Each structure stands twice: as C-alpha cells, then as structure tokens.
Amino acid sequence: MYKFILSTDSTCDLYADFVRDNDIKFVSLNYVVEKDGQFTEGVDAFTEYSQYVDFYRQLREGAFSRTSMLNYESHYNHFLKLAQEGAKDVLHFTISSGLSPTVTVAEKAAADIRKDYPDFNLLAVDSLAATIGQGALVREALRLRNEGKTVQEAFDAVNELRFHIQYAIVANDLYYLKRGGRVSTVAAVAGSLLQVKPVLSFNNEGKLVVVDKCRGMKKAFAYALDKMEKFNPVEENRMMWIVHTDAEKEAGELAAMIEARWNFKPDISIMGPVIGSHVGPGAVAVIWRTKEVRQDG
After folding, report:
1. 214 within 8 A of 220, measured Cβ to Cβ
2. Is 143 in contact with 236 (CB distance < 8 Å)?
3. Residue 257 dihedral angles phi and psi, to the nearest 5°
4. How far are the Cα atoms of 3, 4, 147, 215 from residue 153, in angstroms, in the given order?
5. Which of 186, 218, 246, 257 is deepest in the core (most CB within 10 A)?
6. For residue range 161-170, what is the model confidence (pLDDT) as tens digits?
7. Domain hosting residue 96, numbered range
8. In this structure, are residues 35 and 17 in contact, taking their beta carbons and an 8 Å threshold?
9. How far from 247 is each of 167, 225, 238, 268, CA to CA, in Å?
C-alpha cells in the first residue's frame, strides 16, 4: 500500500502505457491545430506513436498549434475525483512556473477541495521544467513512492532534484518558441540564420534561455557532449534521457554518442503535442542528473 498518490499533468510527456502501468493519476491539456482556416481540437493523451508523428507532420505542412494552460476547473475536477476515491496524500506535478502559472492554479483548486474533504493533502511540485524534465521528476517520485516514502519525503527530494538536472535542448529553429512567446524576438532572429541550431536550457527560475548557437546538429550534439564532460552524469540511479519532435534518426545518433562515452543507453521518447507545439518539429533534447547544480542562465 503506497503512502501517497502520484499525479501529474500531461506536460511531463510520459507515455500512456507507463502512466497506466504505474498507477499515475493523469490530467491532460488540450491543444488546437489551425490549418487553412480550419481549427481542430486535440487532447494531449496520445496512445500510439503514429499519433505523435502525424502531429509533427501537420506542423511541417504549415499547420500551427495553439495551447492553453490547464485551467482551474480541470484541476478541480481532477482533484475532486481523487478525493472522492479516498485519496489523502497526493503529490502533483505541473509545468514550470517560468512558462505558466499552472502550479498556483493547482494549489488553489486543491485548497478548495479541502473545504469539503479536509483530509485531502496535496503538495504541488513546480517542476521548473517541462516535457522529460518534468517527467524525470515524476519517475523519481514513482521510485520513492514504490520504496514506501511519505509524500513529504518525496516532495522534498524532487524539489531538490530539480536543480540537478542538466539540459541541452537543440531546437531546429526558434520560430515556434518565438511565436508561442517562449523566447524573445532578438533570440529568435539570432537563431534564424541558415543552419544555426539554437541550444536552450532552463534556468533555475524555470525559464527557457538560449545558451548557445551551433552551426548544424552535429556541432549542437558536440555542445551537449562537452557539457556532459563538464557536468558528469551521476551513476547512482543514473538518469539520461533524450526526447525529440519527430527527429528519431538524430535522437538515435545522439544516444549512440552518449552510450559510447558513458556506457549507458539513454531512454528515447517523442515529445507530446502541448510542449511540441512550442518547440516545433526537428528538435532533439537530452537531460541528465548531476551532483552540480544547474548554472544556465
């Protein structure tokens, strides 16, 4: 019997079967794809790999995807269901407060649930990240839950871990990030030069920052490998993870480089449509855990 319920929104980019098999409570964000004046609503709850690929195909063909934060009502209904099922201690993960005020909305909804369910105790984790950065925190919380830790012990551990995850996010360009308001126009213009691949990271406030610009994907991967040499992946509970936006070949190439150097094969996954809407197709990112605190931005 676990000591707490594990919950997250869909910006963690964990696959549906992993979420189901590990009894993680999951609430999905929505997105809207606009193409040729037509709007199609979608839910960030893909169950097949082909759905991810089709989403990025639409972007490549000129569609634009819009997202919105998970609102109060969605949080309230998600938490209410947990409370009605008898949940007491809940650890819930949200997208970075540096990208969206979602964590504040989650805390407000949880406080209102407590008015009718006074034993409902939810601790909301501001991931200070998104996609697999958030997902890595959820997976660590899962490990701690399965070891029998309390919700407070897990909360404290993952909040500390947030600052020990290194990022090298290689965008194909900054068009989507600029259009979604995630980076400045100046940064986007700098990254729009021919074959220049912007490399981004999260700073310790959970905001995306451009940390370098590399000519071509190979040099961007070299940047990531150099950063790993500077901030070595820790061996205990080793975590190295790659995510891509329909750039499977490039992700595989980076994974092979990392495995050759560190004798460890990183997980590879494809990014979901909500965060993918802001990154755009052709991106590859890698994260890893270090003893050192992240120093980007």
Report:
1. yes
2. no
3. -65, -45
4. 11, 11, 11, 44
5. 246
6. 999 999 999 9
7. 5-29+69-163
8. no
9. 18, 18, 24, 11
H or E stretch covering 33: strand 30-35
C-alpha distance from residue 194 to each of 75, 200, 265, 266, 275 (Å): 42, 18, 32, 30, 24
Alpha helices in the chain (DSSP H): 16-21, 49-60, 72-84, 102-116, 131-146, 151-161, 175-179, 185-190, 217-230, 248-262, 273-279
- Residue 221: CB atoms within 10 A of its CB come to 22
For the whole model, what pTM was predicted? 0.94
Give the separation between CA 99 and CA 130, rounded to whole angstroms. Answer: 9
Written as one letter, the residue type at 198 is P
C-alpha span between 191 and 213 (Å, rounded): 7
Asked if residue 15 belongs to a domain, the reply is yes
For residue range 232-259, what is the model confidence (pLDDT) as tens digits? 999 999 999 999 999 999 999 999 999 9
User: Domain ends where: 163, 179, 213?
Assistant: 163
Q: Of the candidates 118, 134, 163, which is a domain's last residue?
A: 163
- Copy the structure tokens of residue 199: 């490399």
User: Same domain, yes or no, for 20 and 144?
Assistant: yes
